[in-house]
Design goal:
This is GNAT family N-acetyltransferase. This protein is of the alpha+beta class. It is 30% helix and 31% strand. Strand 1 and strand 2 form a beta hairpin.
Length: 223
């Protein structure tokens, strides 16, 4: 589709250091403040044994190797990493990033989503993605991407539940940990975001979040 964008001037690169939500807050990754709790969340007792299956790094049985990985991430501007902190307990429970950042085109991706077991399948994981998506579109980005290994059923399900549209598969896109990766591509564009954002807001609202769970699912809140 061709659309005239004569006044397009690009958008700024991410600079946020704190994004506040109801259940969690996102803080710019700081190994000195977040490292101990993050290692425990991702590699400690009760950690998800499948967490690293489709990521290009991990697992990290040695803390020194984890520290090197974390320090490299913290120093990076692309990917631009955040730690996820539970607002009730103050504990760090995961990380995720904005990445593949192309301000001149208004294109950005959410990736490196790595949540400890207590965050998975919880309002906290949904809100973490919502906060990054909201920030990206508020900055003026036109396109938000989600990519994953085409064999990663959990990530593909999450993308569609979160409102991303499937765009296709790049066959033989990468070699990861000695294995071929076909990559599934998903996106949200700016014209779609208001309706998707409204669904997130309804799903996260006090009226929908009860002690017994959610009254409506996220997909239902968008319909």
């Amino acid at each position: 589709m061709t659309t005239a964008l004569a006044d397009w001037k690009g958008v700024p690169a991410p600079t946020a250091t704190l994004l506040e939500g109801r259940f969690i807050r996102l803080e710019r990754l700081d190994p000195a403040r977040h490292g101990d709790e993050l290692f425990n969340a991702l590699e400690g007792p009760g950690a998800d044994p499948k967490l690293w299956d489709y990521l290009p790094y991990g697992p990290f049985p040695e803390r020194s190797v984890f520290n090197d990985w974390l320090n490299n991430h913290a120093a990076s501007s692309d990917p631009y990493f955040f730690s996820v902190i539970d607002r009730v307990t103050g504990q760090v429970q995961g990380i995720l990033s904005l990445m593949s950042i192309v301000p001149v085109q208004g294109r950005i991706e959410i990736g490196h989503v790595t949540f400890g077991a207590p965050m998975q399948r919880s309002p906290k994981s949904t809100e973490a993605v919502y906060l990054l998506a909201k920030y990206a579109f508020e900055q003026g980005y036109r396109r938000l991407e989600w990519k994953c290994n085409n064999g990663n059923a959990r990530s593909k399900y999450a993308a569609e539940r979160l409102g991303f549209s499937f765009e296709g598969v790049f066959r033989q896109h990468m070699v990861v940990k000695g294995q071929n990766r076909d990559t599934a591509w998903y996106s949200i564009v700016d014209s779609e975001w208001p309706a998707i954002a409204a669904g997130f807001e309804q799903w996260l609202s006090d009226e929908n979040q009860t002690p017994d769970g959610q009254l409506k699912g996220l997909v239902e809140c968008r319909s």
